[in-house]
Amino acid sequence: MKKKLSIHDIARELGVSATTISFVLKGGERGKKVSEPVKQRILSYIESIGYKPNPIAQNLRTGKSKIIGMLVEDISDPFFSAIGRIVEDSLYKSGYKIFHASTDNDTEKARNLLHLFRERQVDGYIVAPTPGIQKEILELLHEAKPVIVFDRYFPEIATTNVVIDNAGGAYTATMHLIENGFTKIAFVTLDSDQIQMSERLAGFNKAIAEANLESRCLKVRYKTSVQNLSAEIKEFISGYAGVDGILFGTNYLAVSGLKAIQDLQMIIPNDIGIVGFDDNSHFELFTPSITAVAQPVEQISKKIVQLLIKALSENDTVLTAKTYALPTELIVRESSVRNATFAVKTNMSKSETKL
Amino acid sequence: MKKKLSIHDIARELGVSATTISFVLKGGERGKKVSEPVKQRILSYIESIGYKPNPIAQNLRTGKSKIIGMLVEDISDPFFSAIGRIVEDSLYKSGYKIFHASTDNDTEKARNLLHLFRERQVDGYIVAPTPGIQKEILELLHEAKPVIVFDRYFPEIATTNVVIDNAGGAYTATMHLIENGFTKIAFVTLDSDQIQMSERLAGFNKAIAEANLESRCLKVRYKTSVQNLSAEIKEFISGYAGVDGILFGTNYLAVSGLKAIQDLQMIIPNDIGIVGFDDNSHFELFTPSITAVAQPVEQISKKIVQLLIKALSENDTVLTAKTYALPTELIVRESSVRNATFAVKTNMSKSETKL
DNA sequence: CTCGATTAGTAAATCGGTTTACCATTCAAA
DNA sequence: TTTGAATGGTAAACCGATTTACTAATCGAG
User: Fold this and answer.
1) Closest nucleotide to residue A55 (Cα to C1')?
2) A56: which residues sit within 8 A by CB, 6+ positions away?
3) Do A179 and A284 share a domain, yes or no?
4) Is the Cβ atom of B231 within 7 Å of strand C at any atom?
């Protein structure tokens, strides 16, 4: 393995200056002013030895790292890892690399991670913010760094946000339960003020109010173990006599809730109808299969990347603060639809095609 | 937001040289030789303005990036994202950041990604290798970079490997099916030569041979859509009359297989017993719940980090080539155990505690 | 008292690029 | 013929640290 050559080594070898080589490689205004023969000689030599400029040196001089910092709640959560995967692939294609980090929705952790990203001079940020992180986000914007906020956002600060229609999704899901004859419907959600959760609650309440039903709600402490969540939900269901339908606010709440319902030996959907927020590839295979509000993961990812790339290329233009709320899709499966054939245990064929 | 100060700004401010500051910050042999008063003055000033050395400049000068490159097959796969999460957290604590990338098991892609990592001067590599990537890994070792290979490895090259006891896991799982009265057992796996898959096959065959049964095996083309996989498995089951038990080689094969079995309206475990390789938090909630060979995700991650950190700190010591094969655990659930009560659809309480 | 070693500190080179400022030519217009 | 603008190129500063090599001053031993 020969020592890596620097631009100066090449300059010496070719009898030109490093400056000229740099101009040729950058192209642009100044690159045009290099004569064709010299340009060709440089390019073909570089091609032949496979020279690539050292990105760290470039970074130091220009301040551009070609790295994006991505902050999510938990990269091992299927929703975030799906988005992470698509964003990663797209950005690599544009020559960017990614620093991932998980906050666990912990403000202090998020703050530290953003500082780390900043030290490393990342060129842009993709952030699913934790509560209380507004100031830090504003600082980034103040430094004219592109920031895309997603999954949740702060209405009070002017950022570019990519989210889903949480209220609409919850409303549609609740309406669906109502239309299927469930009347004592509860919303099981997090005890959180974050906007995605409060909007889901609002959507739920709107549907409940329109149908003149009573609003039932369980707000659990944030994301403890499945065991704890399950116990809490079990207590809620048995304590709150007569719940016959549940909309779960997140995918892991749905999982914990399903376990609770199993433990209570209740039959879905006969005893209780279920809809989850955030679909999962396994929900189709559950018995009964689980109805869910699906988030358009692909679209969310593409939108994030599109906005970010645009902001990074038009380096003078600041992102316009705007909230993009993408539509959700209710994937109706067995868990929310009462019908006669379901009383018998049988694997019925699914009509849906979407996975 | 004030301009970030450099070490020279501080030097000027304090009337000392940048060299001295650098020595103080590094500590070590040379740091001892700075007088106490000067040292204190520097440290307290730095503390007061919150100075942090620019890591890019450090990187350029020292060649150390404090970044680890992590190459997995697919970061959105639950197995890899779980490992990614734990590794990430641990390495951040040690001051490292991580570049993730997904190969989709594509050799060319993996090659490019490794080159990108190398250009970026990552300090170490964590790699779930694709086929045919031996040469590139050897090159990295040749540059004296720490490389931890995991999930699969190449027996022919001397690397540090963190894997699981694939043969043992498959053997135990197959034996379990045999002990539960299944006799026409098939192994549904990938058409792949990678060692993790061939060892699983070997473990399966060993158990089958010991029980004097006939070995049945379906090797599917690599990871197409769930629809395609499902169709292929369906055809296999119906075509290969009399299969009454299946060990699935990967988690997504199990999912596709379950869909196939649902479509065929077969009853698990009465008509067919099922064991999956690689557990999933949802398997407990399926009806029936799914027996699986669980990989010790936490242990794998910790081992990877431990070996890597050790190699990074003892910067002269080269990693000893060794394969660490961690034990699997068979999580027995309903899908592989025939019993009378199961004929009736009922949610039975689980005895297991593990999730 | 002198020489060598230790101590405390610094100037300058370096990592590998980019960018600014400047220097010759050449060519066209006045 | 002179001037002024392009043209084609380079030298040197710079980004912000680390590291090498060197200088003074002090100290202790012979």
Assistant:
1) C17
2) B56, B59, B60, B65, B120, B121
3) yes
4) no
Structural domain includes residue A210? yes
* A60 interaction partners in chain B (CB closer than 8 Å): 54, 56-57, 60
List alpha helices for A155-268, DSSP H.
166-179, 195-210, 226-239, 251-263
Nearest-Cα distance to chain A for B116, in Å, is 9
Reading the block at residue A50, the tokens are 């496979």
Distances (CA, A) of B292 to A49, B82, B160, B280: 51, 17, 27, 8
Closest chain A CA to residue B68: A99
Alpha-carbon distance of A2 to A49, in angstroms, equals: 11
**Are A27 and A99 found together in one domain?**
no
Among the partner residues A65, A143, A346, nearest to B1 by beta-carbon distance: A143
User: Do B20 and B88 lie in a common domain?
Assistant: no
Helices (DSSP H) in chain B: which residue ranges? 7-14, 18-26, 28-31, 36-49, 55-62, 78-93, 107-119, 134-142, 166-179, 195-210, 226-239, 251-263, 297-313
Q: Is the CB of B19 under 7 A from strand C?
A: yes
Q: Is the CB of B315 under 7 A from strand D?
A: no
Answer yes or no: is B325 CB < 7 A from strand D: no
d(CA A109, CA A101): 10
> Strand B291-294 and strand B329-331: pairing?
antiparallel
Specify the residue for token string 């792949």: B192
Give distance CA B34 / C1' D28 (Å): 21
Mind telling me how many Å the CA of A210 is from chain B's nearest CA?
34
Q: Which residues of A touch B76 (CB under 8 A)?
A: 78, 81-82, 84-85
Per-residue model confidence as pLDDT tens for chain B (355 residues): 456 899 999 999 999 999 999 999 998 888 998 999 999 999 999 999 999 999 999 999 999 999 999 999 999 999 999 999 999 999 999 999 999 999 999 999 999 999 999 999 999 999 999 999 999 999 999 999 999 999 999 999 999 999 999 999 999 999 999 999 999 999 999 999 999 999 999 999 999 999 999 999 999 987 788 888 999 999 999 887 689 999 999 999 999 999 999 999 999 999 999 999 999 999 999 999 999 999 999 999 999 999 999 999 876 567 789 999 999 999 999 999 987 444 333 333 333 333 3
- Residue B63, sorted as left (phi over 0), alpha (psi -120 to 50) or beta, turns out to be left
Residues 93-122 of A with CB under 8 A from B: 97-102, 113, 116, 119-121
Helix (H, G, I), strand (E, B) or coil at B170: helix
Residues of A with CB below 8 A from B3's CB?
Answer: none
Q: Indicate whether B341 belongs to any domain.
A: no
In a domain, A42, yes or no: yes
Amino acid at B45: Y
**Total H helices, total E strands in chain A:** 13, 12
By Cβ distance, the residue of A57, A262, A281 closest to B285 is A262
Are B201 and B289 in the same domain? yes
Grouping H, G, I as helix, E, B as strand and the rest as coil, residue B5 is coil
Disruptive mutation site among A76, A89, A270 for chain B (greatest number of B CBs within 10 Å): A76
Closest Cβ–Cβ partner in A81, A263, A287 for B76: A81
Whole-Å CA distances, B126 to B101, B117, B154: 11, 11, 14
Give a yes or no: residue A342 inside a domain: no
Question: What CATH number is attached to the domain comprising B19?
Answer: 1.10.260
Residues A12, A103 share a domain: no
CA A17 to chain centre: 47
Q: Which long-range contacts (CB under 8 A, 24 or more apart) does B135-138 make?
A: B136/B110, B136/B111
CB contact under 8 A, A285 and B258: yes
Of the CA atoms within 13 Å of residue B2, those in its CB half-sphere come to 7
Instruction: Tell whether A49 and A74 lie within a shared domain.
Output: no
Q: How many domains does the structure of chain B reveal?
A: 3
Find the Å distance, CA of residue A197 to C1' of nucleotide C2. Answer: 84
Q: Are residues B232 and B253 in the same domain?
A: yes
